[in-house]
Write a structure and sequence with these properties.
alpha/beta; Aminopeptidase; Aminopeptidase i, Domain 2; nine-stranded mixed sheet; five-stranded mixed sheet; 9 helices; 20 strands; about 25% helix; globular
Length: about 425
């Protein structure tokens, strides 16, 4: 990719991130982009018989999309891009209205591995979805996004805690309730504010999945703007790259060697153990049904799966200049040197030599660099959806990701060239042998 193409890709990524403060918004943003590329939504209750072309299924904060042109044999193997839509953050409790010492506050719960100090003294908005009462006893879902400085988790002044720099002086059970006003606690105040933003009647709101997000917009950083800084780079970089690759595959000429698939799961940051997570049968059921819809038999499904391959794309760790000793001494990934292929022989990542070869071949076709990543033996290794998908479907899988700093922070950093490299590699992965 040329510098102009890299810049264009990242500009588009930043627009995607701004529109996607929650998993539900990320799925909606991805669906809109796929629809512009000619894909259409299939609902679980629809008849899928004869369905070809670009299709996608939405389930809460998860999306499964694939492209199968008319006439594609039912046994055509899948090339799966695995990603996730969620990020560690603070989520609003079912009974949110609380307060102390004359301050009105909001009760929140920690979601995933949150470095709590990164959420201090930041201007926070609210996003997520509301579950609304519908006609005839039905329910409806509506997205809400308030990009206003409504809340803040204030840090204790150093004059009142001289040990603050010795470690994070936060008791999560007491000190992470954000402030948002003065005065006595008012039951229902938050609900009324959020419902108004969603143009909904508070009396029709039956439940919610709401979370806080940093309202500072994403952007560039560095002497030559060589870095990208934003919330939710982990893992919207990969979701955006996957959508880009899938939309590009839909324009490829000729009979495809593979059916490209994007699986964007939710709840990866808390173990993927939900109906929308990588441990669920969601991907398996959708792909199996897509084979049947094109006239395939159980044998066709088995053949399609036997020839399948999964590339799990999630953020990776760049070497930290202040803590290089925390990294493997022979593996120091750097930003703008290409995505990493992540290896862990204890299967925290699913990569093996076959996976490395498939990834390296895709990099060669894309003209993009890549780097190896291995965790320091003395440090616990993280994991991703790769091993879960490999175990669930029984398909070979390689774990890869853009290297960055401040993973799981309220504001992360990566190289400005690597998102474009990843998109190009994913495009080559799903369209070539």
């Amino acid at each position: 990719m040329t510098p102009v193409q890299h810049r264009s890709h990242v500009d588009d990524l930043l627009s995607f991130i701004r529109a996607s403060p929650s998993p539900y918004h990320a799925v909606a943003s991805a669906a809109q982009r796929l629809e512009k590329a000619g894909f259409r939504e299939l609902r679980g209750t629809d008849d899928w018989t004869g369905t070809t072309g670009g299709s996608f299924v939405l389930r809460g904060g998860a999306l499964i999309a694939w492209y199968a042109p008319e006439g594609t044999p039912a046994h055509t193997p899948f090339r799966i891009i695995g990603t996730h839509t969620d990020s560690p953050n603070l989520r609003i409790k079912p009974t949110p209205d609380t307060g102390s010492a004359g301050w009105r506050q909001i009760a929140v719960e920690i979601y995933g591995g949150v470095p709590l100090n990164t959420w201090l003294d930041r201007d926070l908005g609210i996003s997520g979805r509301l579950a609304l009462r519908g006609p005839g006893g039905t329910t409806d879902s509506r997205l809400v996004q308030i990009d206003e400085p409504l809340l803040r988790v204030p840090q204790l002044a150093i004059h009142l805690d001289r040990s603050v720099n010795d470690g994070l002086a936060l008791d999560p059970q007491r000190h992470i309730a954000p402030v948002w006003s003065l005065g006595a606690v008012q039951e229902g105040a938050l609900l009324r504010r959020v419902a108004a933003a969603a143009e909904a009647d508070p009396d029709e709101v039956l439940g919610w999945d709401l979370m806080l997000h940093d309202i500072q917009p994403p952007g560039y950083l560095g002497a030559e703007q060589e870095f990208v800084v934003s919330s939710r780079l982990d893992n919207l970089i990969s979701v955006h790259a996957g959508v880009t690759a899938l939309a590009g595959a839909a324009t490829a000429a000729g009979e495809p060697a593979y059916i490209p698939v994007l699986a964007a799961f939710d709840h990866e940051e808390v173990g993927s153990g939900s109906e929308t997570g990588a441990q669920s049968p969601l991907l398996e059921r959708v792909l199996s049904r897509s084979v049947t819809a094109r006239g395939g038999s159980p044998e066709d499904w088995s053949r399609a799966l036997a020839g399948a391959f999964c590339l799990s794309a999630d953020m990776a760790h760049a070497v930290h200049p202040n803590y290089a000793e925390r990294h493997d001494p022979d593996h120091h990934p750097l930003p703008n040197s290409g995505p990493t292929v992540k290896v862990n022989v204890n299967q925290r990542y699913a990569t093996d030599s076959t996976g490395i070869a498939v990834f390296a071949a895709a990099c060669e076709r894309a003209g993009a660099p890549w780097q190896p990543f291995v965790s320091n033996n003395a440090m616990p290794c993280g994991t991703s959806i790769g091993p879960l998908t490999a175990a669930r479907l029984g398909v070979p899988t390689v774990d890869v990701g853009v290297p960055g700093l401040s993973m799981h922070s309220a504001r992360e950093l990566c190289g400005a060239q690597d998102p474009g490299h990843l998109a190009a590699i994913l495009g080559a992965f799903v369209t070539s042998g």
